[in-house]
Structure to design on (1039 residues):
């Protein structure tokens, strides 16, 4: 059986958030890379494959929504989780069009990160299923 | 105006009466009936006049005239005869004797009843014959010169008039009229006894004359010499003609001739003492008048004939018989004005005066003319008056015709036929002709609906004797229009007191009636407006007493308008101390005064009122209008809005900072989680690193526990969590357009929430929810609402939590804790009530219960945001209403109203 890759890209402009997320996810057995802007993330996406990305909305350059759109063009199989501090964040239509759901939106502050891990597991499962099918 | 017709007839009758009377009087004046002078026939008396001179001599004729005049008046028939001694023409003895013989012969046999002897010669004769012929005949003499009583001393029944010259008076007169007179020339004759006697008379008077006056007697001068002397008379001379002149031939010049001759030649004014000289050139004098002598004698004769005794009559003094007489021509020639003459002077030769000649005729004619003139004037006046009356009538008519007032006169018979109507009845479309002809009667003009009332009125007034009355009713015009009229009617009665006709004036008052109607309508409308106002409107006058009181005021105070009017304001409206003073001040200064949100307890409920005082600003009106509005609702809404604003601002703040806070908070919480995980022996990823370090994770864990590191971490985590909750709650204050709601039955939702509350960990910690009694009153058929069920549930849960907590603190009140839950429809809303029987809240607390961060709980338990968030959810997110009522010691009730879903059930 081929090993299931669990490569996660964390895109957040705040280092502490990135660090804590990375530590938790690594403790859970994920491979985590983290970048601090949408541009860097796109760059790295081109060079390396990832299963999913956890995206903050507030980014220095292009915002989270724009990044997701672009990233999807680069890798249509990439899964996304949105992790935002904006209380009034709504999934824009251009993202729901490419398959994002409300369940993939998490709001800061997140007291318990287990939910995140579950969501990620779900995304990976879906990806595997769709791969096997397709 | 109409009356003058009768008045005129009276007037003309009066004229004729006056005229007849005047004519009657006039004729009586002008033509006295001879019967007025009815004489009683009696035997005629014989009077014999013996004249000394001859008939034709002016003296003698005058005497005769005088006698006749005197005897003619008021006397029985008298027959007068006369005998003449002719002593002047025939003074000779022989002649005298012969003439006397004749007369004596005549007298033989028949004695007269009375004898009048004129002049001395006659008297001598009569006295001589007295005894023989005239023994018992009374004798009256006149013209006797130098009379002395001794002349008749021996005789009885004899009296008369003495003739004396007024020398002194005439001289005085002459001197007065010709001041500067120094010389008096007396012309006379001594050859004739009569003239000599005259000279003697004059001379006798000399002593009485002024002494400085030079008196010269020129007697018996031949004419040529006399003439020369007369011509040569100087200034200051006055001539007295005292006798007749004689020509050389011996012919005697008579009075007129003598006088004319003398006056012709004399340069000086000529005076005399006898009237016979007057008129021929003398100026005048106080003259012996033959006429007067005769008149006086005749008078005495008359009295004697009437029965008086001659002896009883005294002899008349001649001086009284003389008169001042003048010749106008001489006066004029000498420039002597008539005013210089003595009073009563007779002036002859005055310019022919018709008046003097025909005095009676003149007066009679004048009287007639006067009477006729008065008649004419009277007629003229009547005519004028009639004309004036006509003119006035015409004018009055004109006034009426030009005015809108229509005049009617109609008879008191069937249908009220019209006898008289003014032309301006055509304003109603009718012509006078058709009314007068009977084609249209008065009653047919009256509107049929009013006819009965009018008829009854007329009859009532006619019967009770009120002759003037007034009515208002409707007329129908020819065209069929209806006009309101004001009718003044006067009842005209005939002389017998019966009603002859009705006279009325009619004025069209349609417009006025309309105006009245309009005014009434407007007044009603105004009254309606004022009474429809939901505000209490009270009008006060300058003294603060009520003048207006609308329906809202009645309702608010329970005082009716009739009672409130006139009352001082503070007696009918609850007013605070000094509010009345402020009100008066406002009226004085004409400024609007407002008290806003004045609280007042009404039926144990607190209500707010805005009271405004509007002083009347018009110049001739004083006072004010006070408006009281109940603004309780508004105040509550304002309060709510303030609450919402507070919350929104919190939300705004929150939104601003939430983003900033969430990251650090997130870091705290996530780091805590990581720390705890990485200190746990359970995490697989820890093992390899622990081994490498030679650390025993369990020991580490133990150490951490004993040193309470884990506790601290837990504290950090909880606090962070709480902070996150707060932020989350605050963020919920921002308005966001949520997703579509679902139709929810509130009763169901409430039940589910109760179930949730029963199992809620937090509640359980503090109180066992299941121990609380729940009473449910859910009205069946309550409509559903569209909402975000989760949020509504959050609200219900929050309220239940608060209630449970309150009831727990109220332990010891002796009441078992109980929730009353009610759900029912309320107009277009669904009403949910959650009521507890806890300790309740005081008003100060209740007011603030929805305020963000307001809490009565001790710090640390609860954020104070729960109720405010609930309020926000209900009001802002769902458009509902949330209120709380509370009574200390009784409990608290939360009332939530949410709009029912349109498709109800």
């Amino acid at each position: 059986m081929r090993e299931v890759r669990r490569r996660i890209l964390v895109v957040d402009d705040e280092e502490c958030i990135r660090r804590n997320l990375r530590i938790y996810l690594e403790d859970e057995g994920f491979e985590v890379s983290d970048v601090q802007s949408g541009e860097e993330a796109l760059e790295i996406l081109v060079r390396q494959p990832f299963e999913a990305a956890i995206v903050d909305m507030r980014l220095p350059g292009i915002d989270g929504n724009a990044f997701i759109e672009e990233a999807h063009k680069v890798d249509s199989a990439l899964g996304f989780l949105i992790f935002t501090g904006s209380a009034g964040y709504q999934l824009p239509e251009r993202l729901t069009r490419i398959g994002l759901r409300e369940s993939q939106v998490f709001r800061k502050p997140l007291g318990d990160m287990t939910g995140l891990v579950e969501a990620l597991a779900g995304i990976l499962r879906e990806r595997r299923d769709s791969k096997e099918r397709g | 105006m109409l009356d003058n017709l009768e008045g005129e007839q009276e007037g003309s009758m009066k004229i004729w009466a006056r005229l007849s009377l005047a004519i009657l009087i006039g004729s009586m004046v002008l033509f006295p009936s001879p019967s007025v002078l009815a004489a009683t026939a009696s035997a005629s008396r014989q009077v014999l006049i013996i004249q000394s001179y001859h008939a034709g001599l002016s003296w003698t004729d005058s005497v005769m005239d005088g006698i006749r005049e005197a005897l003619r008046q008021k006397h029985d028939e008298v027959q007068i005869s006369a005998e003449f001694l002719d002593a002047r023409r025939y003074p000779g003895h022989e002649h005298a004797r012969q003439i006397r013989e004749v007369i004596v012969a005549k007298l033989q046999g028949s004695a007269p009843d009375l004898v009048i002897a004129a002049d001395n010669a006659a008297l001598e004769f009569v006295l001589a014959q007295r005894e023989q012929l005239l023994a018992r005949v009374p004798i009256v003499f006149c013209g006797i010169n130098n009379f002395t009583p001794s002349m008749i001393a021996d005789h009885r029944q004899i009296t008369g008039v003495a003739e004396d010259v007024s020398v002194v008076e005439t001289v005085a007169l002459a001197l007065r009229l010709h001041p500067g007179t120094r010389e008096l020339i007396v012309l006379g004759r001594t050859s004739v006894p009569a003239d000599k006697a005259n000279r003697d008379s004059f001379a006798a008077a000399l002593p009485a004359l002024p002494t400085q006056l030079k008196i010269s007697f020129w007697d018996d001068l031949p004419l040529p010499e006399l003439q020369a002397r007369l011509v040569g008379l100087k200034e200051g001379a006055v001539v007295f003609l005292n006798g007749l002149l004689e020509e050389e031939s011996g012919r005697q010049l008579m009075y007129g001739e003598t006088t004319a001759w003398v006056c012709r030649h004399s340069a000086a004014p000529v005076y005399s003492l006898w009237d016979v000289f007057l008129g021929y050139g003398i100026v005048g004098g106080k003259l012996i008048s033959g006429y007067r002598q005769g008149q006086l004698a005749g008078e005495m004769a008359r009295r004697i004939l009437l029965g008086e005794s001659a002896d009883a009559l005294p002899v008349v003094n001649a001086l009284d018989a003389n008169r001042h007489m003048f010749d106008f021509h001489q006066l004029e020639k000498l420039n002597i004005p008539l005013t210089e003459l003595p009073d009563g002077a007779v002036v002859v030769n005055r310019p022919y005066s018709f008046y003097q000649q025909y005095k009676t005729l003149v007066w009679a004619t004048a009287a007639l003319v006067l009477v006729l003139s008065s008649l004419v004037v009277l007629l003229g006046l009547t005519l004028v008056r009639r004309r004036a009356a006509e003119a006035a009538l015409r004018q009055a008519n004109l006034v009426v015709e030009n005015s809108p007032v229509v005049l009617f006169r109609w008879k008191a018979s069937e249908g009220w036929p019209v006898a008289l109507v003014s032309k301006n009845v055509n304003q109603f479309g009718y012509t006078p002709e058709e009314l007068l002809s009977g084609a249209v009667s008065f009653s047919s003009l009256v509107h049929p609906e009013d006819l009965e009332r009018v008829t009854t009125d007329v009859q009532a007034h006619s019967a009770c004797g009120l002759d003037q009355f007034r009515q208002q009713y409707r007329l129908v015009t020819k065209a069929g229009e209806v006009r309101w009229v004001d009718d003044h009617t006067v009842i005209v009665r005939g002389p017998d007191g019966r009603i002859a006709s009705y006279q009325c004036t009619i004025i069209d008052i349609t417009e006025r009636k309309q105006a009245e109607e309009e005014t009434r309508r407007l007044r009603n409308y105004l009254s309606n407006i004022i009474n429809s106002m939901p505000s209490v409107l009270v009008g006060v006058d300058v003294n603060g007493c009520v003048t207006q009181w609308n329906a809202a005021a009645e309702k608010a105070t329970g005082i009716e308008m009739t009672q409130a009017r006139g009352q001082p304001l503070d007696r009918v409206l609850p007013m605070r101390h000094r509010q009345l003073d402020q009100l008066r001040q406002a009226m004085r200064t004409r400024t609007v005064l407002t008290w806003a949100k004045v609280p007042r307890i009404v039926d144990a409920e607190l209500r707010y009122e805005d009271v405004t005082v509007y002083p009347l600003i018009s110049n001739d009106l004083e006072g004010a209008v006070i408006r009281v509005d109940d603004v309780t609702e508004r105040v509550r809404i304002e309060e709510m809005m303030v609450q919402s604003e507070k919350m929104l601002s919190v939300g705004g703040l929150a939104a601003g900072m939430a983003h900033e806070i969430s990251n650090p908070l997130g870091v705290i919480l996530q780091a805590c989680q990581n720390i705890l995980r990485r200190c746990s022996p359970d995490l697989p990823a820890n093992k390899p690193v622990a081994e490498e370090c030679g650390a025993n994770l369990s020991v580490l864990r133990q150490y951490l526990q004993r040193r309470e590191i884990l506790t601290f971490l837990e504290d950090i985590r909880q606090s962070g969590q709480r902070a996150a909750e707060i932020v989350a709650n605050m963020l919920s204050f921002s308005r966001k357009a949520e997703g579509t709601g679902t139709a929810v039955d509130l009763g169901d939702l409430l039940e589910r929430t109760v179930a949730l509350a029963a199992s809620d960990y937090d509640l359980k910690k503090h109180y066992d929810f299941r121990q609380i009694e729940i009473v449910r009153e859910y009205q069946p058929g309550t409509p559903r609402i569209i909402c975000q069920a989760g949020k509504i549930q959050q609200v219900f849960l929050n309220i239940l939590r608060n209630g449970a907590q309150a009831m727990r603190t109220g332990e010891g009140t002796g009441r078992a804790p109980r929730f009353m839950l009610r759900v029912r429809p309320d107009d277009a809303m669904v009403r949910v009530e959650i009521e507890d029987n806890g300790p309740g809240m005081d008003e100060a607390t209740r007011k603030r219960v929805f305020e963000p961060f307001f809490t009565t709980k001790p710090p640390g338990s609860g954020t104070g945001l729960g109720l405010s968030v609930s309020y926000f959810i209900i009001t802002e997110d769902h458009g509902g209403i949330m209120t709380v009522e509370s009574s200390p010691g009784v409990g608290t009730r939360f009332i939530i109203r949410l709009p029912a879903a349109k498709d109800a059930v």
